[in-house]
Amino acid sequence: MQYTDVPVGVLLLARTRTPWWGHLQSATESAIDFVDAGDLPLSDHTLDLTARTGQYPAAVAAFAAVMASHGGVPAEPGEVPDLGADMFGDPLMVNLQAL
């Protein structure tokens, strides 16, 4: 295992957690156990249009802050997409668009 002084964030996405979760626990010597809050099916947490229009600028600001904290220069935000499309009911899609 390698260590770093730089903060690292990881988003793990999968359709199922077997067998990769067990392999990851072994590879990290169970260092990830504290982050296991169980499964969070995104389909159970869709966003309505009001939530989407709040989530998008919050995500853009969060990504820009992370870039700035690491010495990066964030790009100027582009035009806000049409968040009314069905795919943006998925919180992940809103965050991917912001990224």
In short:
By secondary structure, this protein is an all-alpha fold. Helix content is 37%, strand content 0%. The model has no long low-confidence stretch (mean pLDDT 82).
Tell me the number of helical segments per DSSP (H or I, 4 or more residues long).
3
SSE order: HHH
Largest sheet report: none
The overall average pLDDT, rounded, is: 82
What is the beta-strand fraction? under 5%
Round the Cα radius of gyration to an integer and report it.
Answer: 17 Å
Which outline best applies?
A: flat
pLDDT < 50 runs, ≥5 residues: none
Helix content: 25-40%
Write the layout of secondary structure elements.
Elements lengths: L19 H8 L21 H21 L21 H8 L1
Q: Your description of this structure?
A:
There is one protein chain. The protein is mainly α. It has a domain of 58 residues. Helices cover 37% and strands 0% of the residues. The chain has three helices and no strands. The relative contact order is 0.14. The model has no long low-confidence stretch (mean pLDDT 82).
